[in-house]
Write a structure and sequence with these properties.
The complex is a heterodimer of chains A (232) and B (278).
Chain A (H helix, E strand, L loop, with lengths): L4 E10 L2 E11 L4 E5 L6 H9 L6 E6 L6 H4 L2 E4 L11 H11 L5 H10 L13 H13 L5 E5 L7 H14 L5 E6 L2 H4 L5 E6 L2 E7 H8 L3 H8 L3
Parallel strand pairs in A: 3-7, 3-8, 5-6, 6-7
Antiparallel strand pairs in A: 1-2, 1-4, 8-9
Helix pairs in contact in A: 5-6
Chain B lengths: L1 H39 L5 H37 L3 H4 L6 H35 L3 H7 L1 H15 L3 H30 L6 H27 L6 H6 L3 H36 L5
Helix pairs in contact in B: 1-2, 1-4, 2-4, 2-7, 4-7, 6-7, 7-8, 7-10
The chains are: A alpha/beta (232), B mainly alpha (278).
C-alpha cells in the first residue's frame, strides 16, 4: 500500500519568504501524526500543499501515490482551520453535497453523529454557534472513509468539553488503513492520541519520530519536549 | 462531476433569483392594472400616485433583476472559490475547468432567463394595461406576422434559422466573455496577499486598458492598409448589405470567442497556480 503522504525536498516560497524549506516527510498508513510547531512555522502551508490549494515552488509531494489533484482530493478528507461551510446551507444540504461528491461519504455515520449531538439537520449554518459549526464540519470530514485525514487546528478556539468530543470523534472514526495528520500547537490535549510527531519550525522539519521513541529517548512528554525545543 | 457542480450552483443561486423573478412577474400584473387604472381615474389623487408608484416599482424591479444577476455571477465566483468557502469548493474532487464551466454556464442560464423574463413581463404589463393580447397579436395577428416575416427575411437573407443561430452564438459568446473577464480579474486580484478586491478591480481596469490598446493598434495600424472598397460595394444592393451584416455578426462572434479563450486560460492558470485563500 502507498504511503499516505510523501514529501521530497518540498519548498514553498511566497515572494522572498520561504514558508516551507526542503521538507522531507513520509507518513505511513494507519498512523496518527501530530504536525507540531508554533504559529507561522509552516503547518498550514504544508497542509494546503497536500490539498492542492497551493502549488510547490520546488520539490515533490504525493498523496496516496498521487500528485495533488482531482484524484488525490477524492482520497483526502480535509478540515481547514476556519469554517468554510456556506451560511445558507442546512446540515442536510451539506450531507447531500458530500454524498454527491465523495463516494466514500458514510451518510449513516454522519446522521448518527448529528443525532448524538442533538443537531437538527434542518438547521442552517448561519444559525449555528461557532462551536456547532466546528462540530458539523468535523462530522462531515470524519464521516468519510478517506485514506488521509488532514485536520488543521481542529481543537483551536473551542472549550475543553468540545475539545474532548472532537478528539474522541477523530479517534473513533478513522479507518485502520488511513492516516490522520493533526496540525496544532495545543500539544497536551492531543498527545495521548498521537502515534508520531513532526516538529516544524521556520518551514523546516526539525524532528520526526514516534511518540514512544521520544518518551523513551528524552524521558519526558511530547508537550514538555515541545516547550523545551520551541522556547522563545 | 460537472453536472453535480451545476446542480449545486443552481441550488445556491435560485434561492435569490426565483423570489425576484416571482416579484417581477407579480409587479408586471400590478403595473398592467395600474395603466388601466390611470386611464380610468378623473383626478390624479392618492390612487394616481399609487398607480404611478407601482409602475415605477415595476421598471426598477426589472432593472434590479439584471443587476442582481450580474452581481450574483461575480459574488458566487468570489465567495465560493476565492474566500473561505473556497476551502470546501477547491478541495472537492473536481478540476478547475469544471469549476469555471459550472459557474459560467449557470450565469449564462440566469442571464438568458432574465432577458426572456423582461420581455415576458413587458408583454404581460401591456396586455393587461391595454386589454390587448400582445402575445396573441405577435403570434396570431396576420398583419404583424407578415411584417415580422418580411423583416426577418430581409435580415436573415432568406434563412431565418441561420440568422437566429448567429444571434444566439453572439449572445452566448458575448455573455461568456463578460463573465470570464470578471472571473479573470478576480482570479488575478485574489492572488494578492492583501486588498484582494481592490487588486481585482485594478485587474479589470488593466484588462480593459490592454484590450483598448490592442483595438487602437489594429484600428490605426492595420485597418488603414486594408482595402475596404468591398464595404462600399456591398451597400449598393440589399442582398450584399445583408451579407456584410452576417459577416459582421460572425466577426463579432469570433472576437468574443478569442476574448473568452484568453480570459478562460488566465482564470484557469491563476486558480491552479496562484490560488491564495487567506
Amino acid at each position: 500500500m502507498d504511503n499516505c503522504l510523501e514529501c521530497r525536498g518540498l519548498t514553498k516560497r511566497f515572494g522572498s519568504v520561504r514558508a516551507l524549506d526542503n521538507v522531507n516527510l513520509t507518513v505511513r498508513p494507519g498512523r496518527v501524526v501530530g504536525l507540531l510547531g508554533p504559529n507561522g512555522s509552516g503547518k498550514t502551508t504544508l497542509i494546503k500543499l497536500c490539498n492542492g490549494l497551493l502549488t510547490p515552488s520546488d520539490g515533490a509531494i504525493t498523496v496516496c501515490g498521487e500528485a495533488p489533484g482531482k484524484r488525490s482530493k477524492a482520497l483526502v478528507s480535509y478540515l481547514p482551520d476556519r469554517c468554510c461551510l456556506p451560511e445558507w446551507m442546512s446540515a442536510k444540504q451539506l450531507m447531500d453535497m458530500y454524498a454527491d461528491f465523495y463516494a466514500d461519504f458514510d451518510r449513516a455515520r454522519a446522521e448518527d453523529m448529528m443525532a448524538r449531538l442533538n443537531l437538527s439537520d434542518k438547521l442552517l449554518v448561519g444559525q449555528m454557534s461557532k462551536g456547532t459549526k466546528e462540530k458539523v464540519q468535523l462530522i462531515l470530514v470524519m464521516s468519510r472513509r478517506a485514506r488521509l485525514y488532514l485536520l488543521d487546528e481542529p481543537i483551536g478556539g473551542v472549550d475543553p468539553a468540545t475539545r474532548d468530543y472532537i478528539l474522541e470523534t477523530i479517534i473513533r472514526n478513522y479507518d485502520e488503513d488511513a492516516s490522520v495528520i493533526i496540525s496544532t500547537h495545543l500539544i497536551s490535549d492531543v498527545e495521548n492520541v498521537l502515534d508520531d510527531v513532526v516538529f516544524i519550525r521556520d518551514g523546516q522539519v526539525t524532528l520526526q519520530a514516534s511518540v514512544d521513541d521520544l518518551r523513551e529517548q528524552y524521558g519526558k512528554s511530547v508537550d514538555a519536549l515541545f516547550r523545551e525545543v520551541f522556547r522563545c | 462531476m460537472l453536472g453535480k457542480l451545476i446542480k449545486h450552483e443552481f441550488r445556491a443561486t435560485r434561492r435569490i433569483m426565483l423570489p425576484l423573478i416571482g416579484g417581477v412577474l407579480l409587479l408586471s400584473v400590478l403595473a398592467g392594472l395600474s395603466i388601466r387604472g390611470l386611464d380610468r381615474i378623473q383626478n390624479f389623487g392618492f390612487l394616481g400616485v399609487m398607480y404611478s408608484l407601482t409602475l415605477t416599482a415595476f421598471f426598477l424591479a426589472l432593472f434590479a433583476l439584471g443587476v442582481v444577476a450580474l452581481v450574483l455571477m461575480i459574488q458566487r465566483f468570489y465567495k465560493n472559490l476565492l474566500r473561505d468557502e473556497g476551502y470546501l469548493a477547491m478541495t472537492l474532487p473536481v478540476s478547475v475547468d469544471e469549476h469555471i464551466w459550472a459557474k459560467l454556464l449557470v450565469s449564462f442560464v440566469w442571464f438568458a432567463i432574465v432577458t426572456l423574463l423582461s420581455v415576458a413581463a413587458m408583454l404581460i404589463m401591456l396586455s393587461i394595461g391595454t386589454r390587448m393580447n400582445f402575445l396573441r397579436g405577435l403570434i396570431g395577428g396576420e398583419e404583424l406576422r407578415k411584417i415580422l416575416r418580411e423583416t426577418l427575411r430581409y435580415i436573415g437573407g432568406g434563412n431565418i434559422a441561420a440568422f437566429a443561430l448567429e444571434c444566439l452564438v453572439l449572445l452566448f459568446l458575448g455573455s461568456c466573455a463578460t463573465c470570464l473577464r470578471c472571473y479573470a480579474s478576480l482570479a488575478i486580484g485574489c492572488s494578492a496577499a492583501n486588498h484582494k478586491l481592490a487588486w481585482s478591480f485594478l485587474a479589470f481596469i488593466g484588462i480593459g486598458f490592454v484590450l483598448s490598446l490592442l483595438q487602437n493598434t489594429i484600428s490605426f495600424g492595420v485597418l488603414p492598409n486594408l482595402d475596404f472598397s468591398f464595404v462600399e460595394n456591398s451597400m449598393e444592393s440589399v442582398e450584399t448589405a445583408v451579407q456584410l451584416f452576417h459577416g459582421a455578426m460572425w466577426t463579432g462572434s469570433a472576437l468574443a470567442l478569442i476574448h473568452c479563450a484568453i480570459f478562460y486560460f488566465v482564470t484557469r492558470w491563476f486558480l491552479k497556480h496562484r490560488l491564495n485563500l487567506a
